[in-house]
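Researcher: Please generate the 3D structure of the following complex. Treat every line as part of one assembly.
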Amino acid sequence: MTSDTHGTEGQSSGENASAKGTTLRFELPDPKTAAAELTRRTEEIKESIAAVERAKVVTHKLLRKEVSI
Amino acid sequence: MISPFEVMEFSSANLFRALSNEYCQPDEVATQPQSNYLCGYLATIGAKTVVVERKYTDGDYLEDFASYYVRCHARYERCCKRLHFFGAELSDDTLRNLIQGSIASEQGNRIRRSYLGFVVARPLPRAIVGRTLLKTYPPEGDRRHYTVLRSYDSHLFGMKLSVLSLPFQEQDSVLAACATVALWCAFHKTNDIFGTSAPRPAIITSTANSGDHRGRLVPSHGLIIEEMCQAVRDTGLEPELIDCSPDNQVPLVSLAHGHLEMGIPVILIVQIGSAGLHAITLTGYSLQSTRVMAQEMLGTHPCIPMIGLRINEFYGHDDQIGPFSRLFVQQPTATSPLQLKGDWKDNAGQPILLEPVAALIPIYNKIRVTFLDAQVWLTRFSGLLPLLKISTSSFEWSLSLITTNVYKETLKTMSLRPEDLLRVLLEPQPRFMWRGLLRVSEIEVFELLVDATDMANSFPVFDAIWRHEGFRKAMDTFLRLPAMQPSLIGALTRRFLDLLKDSLSLPTDVPKIS
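Model: Done. Output below.
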């Protein structure tokens, strides 16, 4: 995050501001570059999501493990 | 006539003597890890006085007695002792006056407020630490979070005393092994949250084995995970079982936090060296202000940065150690998975690291969308952040289960625009939801609400709340860029993108309350 002519800035009030009083600035990207980058990242996102889906599987082997200590 | 109680100064010698019985002398008590742990724990929370209630009928022990001990040739007692601990110094006369009510109310209230809880001493040769309810360590600022607690009242000769805690006990290895005890602890809290049953250990062991079993029910040598799941079902809840083996991409620390935040106990099943599996009921965590881990899990697909990166300890009831025992998180490395370091030691006195195998979470049946299901939508949204030059080191998600009532109460303390606040307060919400809170450089900028009662395979996200004006404006522009639409749909899905755009377009006709 930096400040430049395409940036937007805002400071949330009250308890949302960090203790350091940080002001967040967000930089908008060039749309064409960003679109290509996001398309590339989408494949990584899909692989991460697929990994999470695999993590939800519970095997019979796990169910038969004995908790005995 | 022997006095029904004894008042003594708190010390290790007095504690061991108070816990002892005809089958287990004080010097034997002193060798037991649970007794030693209790001694250190009580000293740390400021115990000054022990009041021993000499004849106490404990419901859990009475059930065990009726199920097993009454049939033994040895004449085990049916009554226990109950040890009460106070942070104030008390004498025999002061306690008598307090019981009779002939004490100044200010002094009486001061003594009641100093109550630290109690330990039931079972009249057995071993496993003498029965039902234990002790006050937790102080929060130390905002670091320690004991979320799995409930209020308990105990009565000492007609005097009502209260403590905020969760019951603990040592396994007797007759009617309950560690799995049963871990379930018993957890069910006390789920009874409080969901109104489900909180069966005694003997009942848990019996019903867990109501299906196929490989041998004798009693003495109990443990339960298989499937039997633990059955025990959860028998209370009317669903067993959410997560495989936490290193090959699985599960951010265990954040996942545990996500349930503990709502007060839901997480039963962590861990491998203890080569000895076998053990169950610990997690009751809280320690949250640091900065990251203590670089990553929560190994693997080729790093998890989005979540609050687990700032959690350095869990607190849990470990029946082999003691109540609220500390489990230090050891971050995963290239050669070892995430592990926990507690008070377990090998024969040489060296610490044994605990390796998580599974997490078993007793959950209300209406909660059907899981932490991992909700995480998917946070992952999708996180894909946009680097495009706004928000690096993974600067943002963090906190994903936790919450009820609509608690959430709406919390909303009133947040700095939201009045129109946002009113809109969300007046909007009907599902009873249970996942709240995904995004922080950028420690500032809360955005929230995603996921309906926990919906279907995982549908689109369970139902609201987005923009907490930071600059972030809102940036995303409002970014999400509407014409050149970005196809890639945004690919990354988010069309429905998610539409929801985000709709949430950015605030209604101007929010009803005003006169």
